[in-house]
Amino acid sequence: MMKDLSHLHLSTLAIHAGESPDPHTKASSPNLVMSTTFVADPDSTFSVEGLEEDAPFFYTRWGNPTVAQLEQKLAALEGVEDCITFASGMAAITALMLHTLSQGDHILISDVTYAAAAELTLDLLPRMGISVTRVNMSDPEKVREAISPQTKLIYAETPCNPLIRLTDIQAISSIAKRAGILLAVDSTFATPVATQPIELGADLVIHSLTKYIGGHGDAVGGALLGKSNLLAQIRQKIAIRTGGIISPFNAWLIMRGMATLPIRMMAHEKAAKTVADFLENHPKVTRVIYPGLPSHPQYDLAKRQMKNFSGMISFQVKNGPEMARQLAERLQVIHYAVSLGHHRSLIFYLPTRDMLQNSFHLNAEQAKAYREYAGEGIFRLSVGIEDGGDLCGDLERALE
Ligand SMILES: *Cc1c(COP(=O)(O)O)cnc(C)c1O
């Protein structure tokens, strides 16, 4: 088992947590264990029912040494007891929902979330007899009003994709606690370097490891974190049986990426601040949203809840679709591509009409609130860790 590292800082934990030297080879860096099966005790049982947390490795879908090392590192960084990793962020979200919701239950979900999470809750959950209410989670009063006796889960995302609108985790968690409802927070945009939702009262945290945590754009993965008694249930009843587990190779790559997460986040924030200031002063840019700018509508909450403003910026111009074509053609450093949180800067245009029609299906009041942040469309810019001045130069030439 791991030594007690709880007194150490994030930058130390990112390197050392989960990485004790291999007891047999004394290898200092983590081994990659690709074996799908492990030589078993003839008395071990063939069902996952009654699986003990400290059972020996048996079959890689149940658990794997490399994957377990990544899970320990993630739990240490988030300051929680346990972590389950998955093949993708969406697999983590699916496992969370399958475990916490049954027929007749109700979920309260932020009206703007990662598009696939919105689409999943609009389509699959109602088919399973689970009712869904979407609320603007930047307004805690709306959350309180929407709770019913059937509500089992409140699901928030902060900062939310793609608006970069924030949710006050402490405020929502006190509402959830009073009502005895679980609160899960997708913290992909923030990372544990900026915000530790469990410390602020959330029960569960979700990460797409594909983004900042892996950080290099070469491995898809997801994670669910929380208290060990709840996670042991999710691991046994859902994760192992539905099988959306992470490949040990991806776990190894993501663990390697994580060693530099704290210093990468500092670099992302520094470059993003430079780019946000540049865009805010550019004549063709009509609106910039970045939590580190005093012009962000929730700047006070951002300062209170985020120890690092991360690298996600959204901005608007007059003719978005035309500018999207121009940027895709002219940008030399920044890639016109989806995804985010990589070392490399990425930009993508999200027209409001498409987002509302295909992903979010908002009511009139929610659509109005969406447009307050997004106008007719936004460029979502994931600022990488390149030189901030070089990124401004690239944008300057391309926006001409
Ligand atoms: C990308 C993303 C996800 C989904 O993660 P995948 O690894 O692509 O499945 C979930 N939430 C947020 C906020 C994301 O950005």
Overall body shape: globular
Fourth-level CATH superfamily of the largest domain: Type I PLP-dependent aspartate aminotransferase-like (Major domain)
CATH topology of the largest domain: Aspartate Aminotransferase, domain 2
Provide the number of structural domains.
2
Order of SSEs, N→C? Answer: HHEHEHEHEHEHEEHHHEHEHEEHHEH
Low-confidence stretches: none
Instruction: Report how far the terminal alpha carbons are from each other.
Output: 57 Å
User: What are the bound molecules?
Assistant: pyridoxal-5'-phosphate
CATH class of the largest domain: Alpha Beta
Q: What value does the average pLDDT take?
A: 96
Number of strands: 12
Beta content: 15-25%
Q: What strand line-up does the widest sheet have?
A: 1-7-6-5-4-2-3
Question: Any overview of this molecule?
Answer:
The chain is of the alpha/beta class and 400 residues long. The protein folds into two domains: 10-258, Type I PLP-dependent aspartate aminotransferase-like (Major domain) (Aspartate Aminotransferase, domain 2), CATH 3.40.640; 261-399, Alpha-Beta Complex (Aspartate Aminotransferase, domain 1), CATH 3.90.1150. The protein is built from 15 helices and twelve strands. The strands form two sheets. A seven-stranded mixed β-sheet has the order 1-7-6-5-4-2-3, with helices on both faces. Helix 7 links the parallel strand 5 (182-186) and strand 6 (204-208). The chain is globular. The termini are far apart. Pyridoxal-5'-phosphate is lined by residues 88-90, 114, 157, 161, 186, 188-189, 208, 210-211, 220, 222.
